[in-house]
Amino acid sequence: MNFRSQRGTLHNLSMFDQTLKCLALIANLLVVGTAARSVNKLANVDSTPTQIDVALFDDSGELTHPFHVSFGKNIGEPKECDAEDGEICLEWRNGGKLSVKKGEGDRRIISVNGEGPLEVCYKLNGDHLYGGPVVSTYPAEHSNITELPYMTGDISRFGVVLAVAERYWYTSSGLNIKVAPESPLFITQHEDKFCLIAKNEFPYLVEPSLSLQWSTCINAKNLREGLKCFFQSYEKPIPPKQVIASPIWSTWVEFKRDVSQEKAIKFYNDIKANNFKLSVMEIDDAWETCYGSEEFDKSKFPDAKAMVDLFHSEGYLTTLWVHPFVGPGCESLDKYAQYLVKDSDGSIGKTVWWNGNGTLINFMDPKAVEWFQQRLVNIQKEYGFDSFKFDAGEVAYVPGMGKDEKSVRMKHPNQFTTNYVKAASKFGALAEARVGAEAHTFDIMQRVQDTNSVWGAENWGLRSVLLSVFQLSLHGYGAVLPDMIGGNCYGDQPTKEMFIRWIQLNTFLPIIQFSLAPWKFDQETIDISRKFTDLHYEYADKIMKEFKDTSHPVINPIWWIDPEDSVAQTIDSEFLLGEDLLVAPVLEEGAVSRDIYFPKGSWKDLNTGKVYTGPGYVKGYSAPLDVLPYFEKV
């Protein structure tokens, strides 16, 4: 591998391919100017003192997916560095190193090292971007993120919503990227470019040398091929079939923190009286004597075991809301201090969460994890709960996290979230969590983050539900659990129309979850809601089949069956159940019709029997309030 330095000196950096030496020498004789160029079978590298441009060769010899590297300073001339067989290794005299090595198959592993900040940017050139943080924009290039620290957070902490922080990205032309968990990652996502950044800034530890490492498969030419680089198959946790077939009913929206045993049982009886199906009764927030005691408040739940036994006696499962905090005033705060996150002086660290001040269980400590799990096992033994709803778990709640000079920093912050979800996964596929980082393989339901009772996507309303499901599916999460029908009623209240359109959206998603009761509206709402929960029940075998099929996710964007269809790549209001059921819910306020884009193939309308042929639009499909457009591939 040969390159020309600024002074025109010819250097030999590697014996990777001796046959290239003569060709490279001839090429170098033709190069003029100050740029240094390195070419071998792996990559083409052009270097000046201020920038490096790299493109990888695919197996056909074509250059693919060029990227730009900046070391944040003048790096001077390149020089030789040690390289293994099948590896490019370049160093620069003023600091900075680049290596490209072969991985399994057509995978390449790329590393950039230096004092930092390090920045690697891919120009999108009209491509669409997918993956990355689960945000309320789709495709992801519209998210307009600039140098976001890539850690799990919450809107109340640092103004970011990043419940799931998986390190995969894809573009419509086949670029695929997986960033190593050890890299101190920041990201920029704009319509014209996507950048990976490593810096010695919050929330990461200060290191004398930074490393930004990622892998990519060089032969992928479209989205599905890019996904295949990291997901050869889609093994999925499979919840109990009754949970797939019939809704979960939570006490949260219906009662918020004013829940009690009496109210939960009345709610349960009302569900049955209105002839709604039921799989799980979920007892949500405010059942404890204080947050973190994990003891029932006897004034609200005088006999929690009798309540659970009642639900079980009629064939229903029961879950309980839990979290990683311990509140002030709890006996357990001092009694179990050894399991809590400490400040640098050894005192118990303090944090703030949505229920006030508190402390946090230390999921970086295996003994604390074991203690946390055993407490939940004890609850199961005493009361009979089948599993748990695990809330929170974001790194942003770690005591001392902040943007000032004295804030806590961690080498690998998202490991806290990974450990939390791993601990939750002990309680089986009926357990649910809302956070994730390197967590898609865990046997657990991944809940879409809290949604608001509004129509749009911008404020995590109705339109955001499907966008979150898409992104979680692309990250390999199989058992995706949409949030509650109608949203969480945080201030805004859903209208009858919104509630009905919400249940229609959820009809062919993997699992339905209610809390706000349909009978809060009127008889028509009850009838339509029951109609679509019954339709979901009828398709339970189909949904279960998609869980067991490892060739694709359960829910897919419509480009899945034609990844080079440029129109399908941007459709954010239609989806596929598996590969052969197309669903096009109405998501606009006041709409009684919608345009529907059909990907390639023939699609039978399961409302009317009419067959449509794609690719192409059908304009103004009639969809009054009681109609959900859905189609079967024939």
Automatic annotation (TrEMBL):
Signal peptide: none
Superkingdom of origin: Eukaryota
Residues covered by the Glycoside hydrolase family 31 TIM barrel domain: 256-539
Glycosyl hydrolase family 31 C-terminal domain residues: 552-631
Hydrolase listed as a keyword: yes
Alphabetized InterPro entries for the sequence: Alpha-glycosidase_related (IPR050985), GH (IPR017853), Glyco_hydro_31_C (IPR048395), Glyco_hydro_31_TIM (IPR000322), Glyco_hydro_b (IPR013780)
Gene Ontology biological-process annotations: carbohydrate metabolic process
Record GO terms (molecular function): hydrolase activity, hydrolyzing O-glycosyl compounds
Keyword set, alphabetical order: Glycosidase, Hydrolase
Similarity section: Belongs to the glycosyl hydrolase 31 family.
Protein name: Alpha-glucosidase
